């Protein structure tokens, strides 16, 4: 047996009064799938919502929920004290999840794939797409280096936050042939990449004044990175990045 409404609303409370008003308007406890009457096929759907019925469409269910969320804020009465108009406060309609940037495929926009994590990748002078990166300067920490690199690569127009001091992951790439520094003080046999987690709060990347010779940028989801990075780079980072 279903619970009585008094299980949810104490009798005589504002919540109980509002529930009775709503049930009188929609003639069913359901807020999103229309009227239901198990004994009258003409009054609404019976047992199941039929395929193709208006009530089965997500857009119709959203509209029904918004109508149900309307709240009475004022009642106007005439000189005899009779109600003549009820003013309602409309619920805010949620914005669509598919944006103009999604429709036109603008990978430079952050206003796309709203349900996914987007990663900033930049195009280097040699045509290779990679994450903003650079070497450490003297004894700077990974956290400080990440902040500096983002500014050098993407400009000052990004309000970013580097999360924590510990990298998400790292990988080592050994050179086929050691590189010798200009002063011949030491040989460099490879490079170690550390990945720091960062969030962009506002703004956008701007490569106009970057000092790294970068020519383009994109905000890409993980599956898009697989198509953009060269295979050996993708294999190195695929297990570091979040799926969503």
Report what the structure shows.
The protein is an alpha+beta fold and 244 residues long. The protein is built from 6 helices and 9 strands; from the N terminus they run H-H-E-E-H-E-E-H-E-E-E-E-E-H-H. It has helices at residues 14-26, 58-68, 100-104, 142-154, 222-228, 231-237; strands spanning 71-77, 83-89, 119-123, 129-130, 158-162, 169-180, 187-195, 198-203, 216-220. The strands form 4 sheets. Strands 4-3-9 form a 3-stranded antiparallel β-sheet, covered by helices on one side. Strands 1-2 form a two-stranded antiparallel ribbon.
Topology:
Blueprint: H1 14-26, H2 58-68, E1 71-77, E2 83-89, H3 100-104, E3 119-123, E4 129-130, H4 142-154, E5 158-162, E6 169-180, E7 187-195, E8 198-203, E9 216-220, H5 222-228, H6 231-237
Antiparallel strand pairs: 1-2, 3-4, 3-9, 5-8, 6-7
- Widest beta sheet: strand line-up: 4-3-9
Helix content class: 10-25%
Radius of gyration: 29 Å
Shape: elongated
Mind describing the biggest β-sheet? 3 strands, antiparallel
Q: How many separate helices?
A: 6
Task: Summarize the model shown.
This protein is of the alpha+beta class. Helix content is 23%, strand content 24%.
Name the descriptors.
244 residues; alpha+beta; three-stranded antiparallel β-sheet; two-stranded antiparallel sheet; 6 helices
